[in-house]
Records
---
Amino acid sequence: RAAIQRDELSIFFQPIVDLETGRIRTFEALVRWFHPEKGELRPDEFIPVAEETGVIITLGNWITAQAAKAAAQWPEDVTIAVNLSPVQIRAPGAALGILTALRDAKLDPRRLELEVTESLFIDDNQHTARFIEDLSAEGVRFALDDFGTGYSSLGYINKFPFKKIKVDRSFVSGPNVGLKSDAIIRAVAEMGSTLEMEIVAEGLETIDQVHAVRAAGCTLGQGYYFSRAVPDYLAAMLLAQEQDSDPAARLAS
Ligand code: C2E
Ligand code: CA
Ligand code: CA
């Protein structure tokens, strides 16, 4: 709580790139905590604590508000993706909090994507379904994050209106990548194209990985190869650079 008040938190933005054109289609908002003594703390370290203590509700609303404000400055075809924790979604008034952030920032709800993980559905309750339905009705889109790491139940994809599936980076880069992971990505991408969903490959670090996931049918890519998460002024600069250069050059080597 104090960190918010002391202004130690900021939102960084990582581009998600169209693998056909090389253009930035979305920025994912990723929170950063610059602690005066401990230095930069990773969200993996403090988000779980914020969830346990319930602080994530205040923090999450703050993140959505900041992200929406930044996105309102970008060209209209660029969207913003915000990660939501299950605790946040289960809190009373969760949908209202998000709609308020959009209204305050004057951001079209269709420009907001909410990234949720399967853990949200572990105790499948009506409140979650209602949250997704209510916001979808306003035009907000949903993405299924870290796909392939949990139960990867296809039931959720069938039941909820996901527009995007994000294939976890363990299938894309690292020691366990090979023929098997490639076949899995292909299968997910095939399903995505039939269901008119976008498939995002996370964790792209090399141009070879970019080419591999594109060949496997992924439509979007994210990872250090394109850019790390950057502060808002650099995100705006990445968008401005696209005007003067050929974004497709990002996909060539
Ligand atoms: P995530 O949603 O899967 O976010 C992607 C993470 O992968 C980010 O780490 C990002 O910096 C990292 N990443 C991106 N490209 C690459 C790459 O090419 N290689 C590698 N090795 N890593 C890459 P980050 O920012 O540390 O966030 C970690 C997790 O913390 C996120 O995973 C998300 O679950 C959570 N998180 C971050 N920001 C928020 C937030 O605002 N709200 C909530 N509820 N959770 C957040
Ligand atoms: Ca995410
Ligand atoms: Ca992810």
---
Amino acid sequence: MRRAAFAVAAGAMAVSLAACGSAKESGDKSDGGKKAAKGGDITVGLLLPENKTARYEKFDRPLIEKKISELTNGKAKVEYNNARQDANLQAQQVDTMITNKVDVLIVDAVDAKAIQNSVQKAVDAGIKVVAYDRLAEGPISAYTSFDNTQVGKTQGEALLKALGAKATKSSKIVMINGSVTDPNAAQFKKGAHSVLDGKVTIAKEYDTKEWSPDNANSEMEAAISAVGKKNIAGVYSANDGMAGGIITALKAAGLSVPVTGQDAELAGVQRIVTGDQYMSVYKPYAPEAEAAAEMAVALAQGKSLDSVAKDKVSSGSQKDVPAVLVPVTSLTKANIKDTVIKDGVYTADEICAGKYKAACEKLGLNK
Ligand code: BGC
């Protein structure tokens, strides 16, 4: 439903953007007003933060590239790079984009604060910046993401639901959060705490360097020895990648407790099918990616963002940034069909391949 509604809205946006093709340049002084308005013949720089979490290469990149191509009749070029969790490398990648004179930049920052310098450099070179998913500091022109505090609340609520009668103050849970360099991680954490605090005891809590599944695995092992395996009622994991590492540690200790996640990664959905993971947060990447593409193309062409960006956000350094924030859904065994399968993110065959066949049959997924 939501996806369909968004597709219609996105279609309307494309029409309205095309319709205002002759709109005047948006106060951009970088070219002294001399440069002719750009058509489809633009270059968009796209920088994503890491490749251990599946979403970036599997969804974000191809979806953004596809939409940019659609919006420009295949005329635009996309220059892509992935920072592999290295903030210094990402700064170099921005420099390269500036040297190559891209028309606009879409950046998902490894480190939202450290990127500020690079955003400023790009803007000084006349290149507008769209912050993607993570709210980069600095003079960005637009932002697209999800309601990230709501993601954390959704995770916390699902964990309480999974604990059921065990959701009491004497129940101990472990919280494994994302990276401190990612402002989203702070919002997920805040949202989750707002739901869990006072309802259960948070026996151990970690911020995980680089969102790394291996680091999450070590944190879980440490929590098991510190808290005692019999005393752990559930685990808050901020995303599916880390949930993978956490569940490996739990299994090694012979433990099976509810674990949360986020991203609806294929491996995460498969763990939900088998019952190893309780939930994930389904964030439909298409509307997020498409909004980024719409805004980047509009900015490169000097058009207004008004028809696309209905929200506004503020970062530590920038007020009232035009934004698109996409709603999220809690994903459990109960709604795999109505979410990721219905939206065409995965086919039932993909989810139910090989060893997942029997568990899928029990859920009626491969019928
Ligand atoms: C994203 C998540 C992702 C995490 C690790 C966050 O900023 O919103 O979807 O799992 O980074 O890359």
